[in-house]
Write a structure and sequence with these properties.
Two copies of one chain form a homodimer. In chain A, helix 6 (171-182) crosses helix 10 (267-281). With 284 residues, the first copy, chain A, is an alpha/beta fold. Chain A has helices at 28-38, 56-73, 86-93, 102-114, 132-146, 171-182, 193-198, 219-229, 238-255, 267-281, and strands at residues 17-23, 45-50, 78-82, 98-101, 161-165, 186-190, 212-216, 258-261. In chain A, strand 1, helix 1 (28-38) and strand 2 (45-50) form a beta-alpha-beta unit. In chain A, the strands form two sheets. The first copy, chain A, has a four-stranded parallel sheet, sandwiched between helices. Chains A and B meet through helix 1, helix 4, helix 5, helix 6 and helix 10 of A and helix 1, helix 4, helix 5, helix 6 and helix 10 of B.
């Protein structure tokens, strides 16, 4: 934006809309939700996070910032808010903006249907720091870290899932995400050329075959990713990537291991898919 | 639940409500949002995730499952949905439930205000696997893993933030969360007894003091956490935890390092707070 407008007044066609995520907590809910709605509009948005708005003073301050954005943009800012307290919410609603109030919109019909009043406590996306669920998540993160990249054969009996795949097929981020988001203990093991020569799964895994889930990836994409890391190496060469992927897929087929391709999927999509697969095995 | 009801018909006062999270994607948005609304009601909920509902057939199947839950519970299930396609959404709406349709509720007013139609593409909470933002996140995760627990002094110049604190003060999960959720390159360094004797920060960090952010924790809580790991050890003893925390806080004060307590905070809250602090330094 080096071409400053010549008139110092409101620019008539601002290149963007300003979007605010206002929350009395972390703002993660407002932001996650806002993103998934905004991706449906092919526009550029300037995004501003305003977390921890938990006093009237901060609410007035937030309102002032929304109004400032309106004055600068000449267009109504879009305000995604998750303010549990009605008085704070009311203050924000006075700002000049298009208001997407997630809580107020849905809490009232819920109160009616459930026949009880909301406690109007500040929403926390993942419970409080001392809850059982929270402890499980931290434990799962530590477990997944200790069992990253085949680091340890210990306690594999405790794993909820063991991801396998060639180097850079997406195992590590997926394991960490499963732990962080869902409290799933996810170990991960690389399938390496030695395994392909032996034509066997790493021996430490044999007892846990029912927990194994494979990740594969298109050789072209794998080569691209590996080249970013070790440009021009044999490791990254397309021919080598093709060889490894072929062998890995053949092994998974032979061993009856479920697998999916990570090529065009985000971590979230891979994790959610694996979660469904694990669940189908057990209860739900 | 060993006491089965004697009458095999609809239990009149079911112990729970069934809640569905229905999505054409991972369901993370519906679930994150649903949780933060439901935590405001002191009730037990049975939660069922139905991700990847992206065909009419799957939508009808989801509808059938909601109706089944209604038949069993004798109470309307609560249905949080994020279905972008209007035809799929319409199918779900026919299920007997209290519908919280996140997309349809907000997309229409947005279309009106923005003056353009939504593309009705399936929302993805974190963009597609090939976007620049996505690559940054993966890079940040790899960076944070490689710089966990003081493993490496290399490339600290690339860090967006360097977390310091005593062992088990919450550095590792926070670093990984910052990377995963926000694409922040977060290194972390333990403050250990040797540092307290020397009364100096680890020497590798001195050049990056402006990027350091400290985590502290109440000694009682720290002792509890460490005792889960190494019960009865000196490491976990309350007296030792008190010593380490005192020294760590004294050092941070002396060095002018910003810090916060992780005692009662979730990873999400710690991460969002740090993010605000980092931002205030730079742009926003």
């Amino acid at each position: 934006m080096t071409d400053a407008p010549t008139l110092p007044t409101l620019p008539m066609a601002a290149a963007h809309r300003t979007v605010f995520f206002v929350s009395d907590g972390t703002g993660i809910t407002a932001e996650t939700f806002g993103h998934s709605v905004l991706t449906q509009f092919e526009l550029r948005f300037k995004q501003i996070r305003l977390p921890f708005i938990d006093t009237l003073e901060k609410a007035y301050d937030a309102t002032r910032r929304v109004n400032e954005a309106y004055a600068i943009d000449g267009k109504l800012p879009i305000v995604f808010s998750t303010l549990v307290k009605a008085d704070l919410s009311k203050v924000i609603q006075e700002a000049k903006g298009l208001h997407m109030d997630l809580i107020q919109t849905f809490v009232e019909p819920l109160e009616k249907e459930l026949g009880i009043k909301s406690t109007h406590t500040v929403g926390r996306s993942h419970n409080t720091a001392n809850s059982e669920e929270y402890k499980n998540r931290i434990e799962a993160i530590n477990y997944s870290l200790a069992h990253d990249d085949g680091q340890s054969n210990k306690n594999l009996a405790d794993a909820d899932v063991i991801l396998v795949g060639v180097s850079r097929s997406g195992k590590t981020p997926t394991s960490l995400y499963l732990a962080m988001q869902y409290g799933i203990k996810a170990a991960n093991y690389p399938l390496i050329p030695e395994d392909f020569v032996r034509e066997k799964l790493p021996s430490g895994l044999l007892a846990y075959k029912h927990k194994i889930f494979g990740l594969t990836i298109l050789p072209e994409r794998l080569s691209e990713i590996r080249n970013e890391r070790l440009p021009g190496s044999k490791y990254a060469a397309l021919s080598n990537c093709r060889y490894e992927i072929n062998e890995a897929e053949a092994m998974m087929r032979r061993e009856g291991i479920r697998w999916m391709s990570s090529t065009t999927k985000s971590i979230e999509e891979i994790a959610a898919t694996i979660l469904q697969e694990i669940k189908t095995d057990n209860d739900e």
